[in-house]
Amino acid sequence: MNDSFAYVRPQSAAEVPPPSREFVDVAVLDMNHAHHNAGHDSIVGLVRRLSADLAPSLESEGLTVRLTSYDVRRLAVLPPLNDGLSLILGTGGPGHLDPRLNRRDAVDEGEILESTEWETPLFDFFDAVDRHDGAMLYGVCHSFGLLCRWSGVAVPVLRGEGKGGPSIGIVDNVLTPQGLEHPWFARLASHLPDGKHLPVVDSRHYDLIPTRRRFPRGIVPIAFETRPDGEAGEALTMVEFARKSNGTPRMFAVNHHPEIPNATELDELLHRKLDEGEVSQDWYASRAALVERLQRDDHSEPARLLAAGYSFAFLVRDGLKDLIEDRRQRRGRTVSSAL
């Protein structure tokens, strides 16, 4: 642990750390089901870096960012929601988005056998986040698909031969008319070369296909996949489920990987996992191919990193700032009432 950041990985509900005046809590919903991955570690690394950036504010309040990672699919452990503000980050993960289908429809790293016991508590947790104006949830990939299933706005469809199989690498998404008018994503659009197409890091075995033409009130489609002709395809890729009063997404997820850092940082992460014996040479080689793709496609890097920021990193940064400010104001009220 350093002065600004601490990491916790509970193995049961009994090990979930209680709230403490010393910590600003961030929760990670780990959907990887104990499979090796780079995304979870990238999210941890992002929160660690942001904590270092915010160290002066944290130190002035005597606070440390405590990131607690919850193994949702394997252990069915979920975070509590605080009375004030909460920040929750959902990862990607392997396999089908319906745990009932993984015995016969696992496509990522061999057969995935899992219980369904985590699904109802997770969807109840999403309900609670949706109702709680102080809860912020930002998800990627598998978490996106689970939010789509929870809300009923889209269903997973395996990308077969007709779609060219899995979508892996750097691809374009296109902002919807609602996305272009959104107070947050309009700022992103103003920086894009053509004002609507954004490059993203993809690793998508399943498309999320909308179940209706009109989305429920409060749920906003932000982007779709891009067809070869540049127009929007059928697969939904970015959705806002709830919004803050200041126009920033409060509950938002994407079907790509904005948490993946630039090529240099990703290369360092993969080498570290290999050097520490955490992953096999084959696993390392399969992920290192993405580093090569990022390096070859460096002309799109400025737009890709900006899109990743608006899709994830900037939201996490602002969420952390909100948590620190909320804690400062609460302490101020406590001191004032004591006087």
CATH fold node name: Rossmann fold
**How far apart are the first and last residues' alpha carbons, in Å?**
35 Å
Binned strand content: 15-25%
- DSSP strand count: 12
Major sheet attributes? 10 strands, mixed
Mean of residue pLDDT? 89
Looking at the overall shape, the CATH architecture is 3-Layer(aba) Sandwich
- Strand sequence of the main sheet, in spatial order? 1-3-2-4-5-12-11-10-7-8
Number of helices: 10
The CATH superfamily appears as: Class I glutamine amidotransferase (GATase) domain
Low-confidence segments, ≥5 residues, pLDDT <50? 104-108, 335-339
**Total tally of structural domains:** 1
Question: Which structural category fits the helices and strands?
Answer: alpha/beta
Oligomer: single chain
Please give a structural write-up.
With 339 residues, the chain is α/β, with parallel strands linked by helices. The protein has one domain (5-338): Class I glutamine amidotransferase (GATase) domain (Rossmann fold), CATH 3.40.50. The protein is 37% helix and 24% strand. It contains ten helices and twelve strands. The strands form two sheets. Strands 1-3-2-4-5-12-11-10-7-8 form a ten-stranded mixed β-sheet, with helices on both faces. A two-stranded antiparallel sheet has the order 6-9. The longest helix has 38 residues, at 301-338. The two termini are 35 Å apart.
Any descriptors?
single chain, Rossmann fold, alpha/beta, 24% strand, 339 residues, disordered C terminus, two-stranded antiparallel sheet, 10 helices
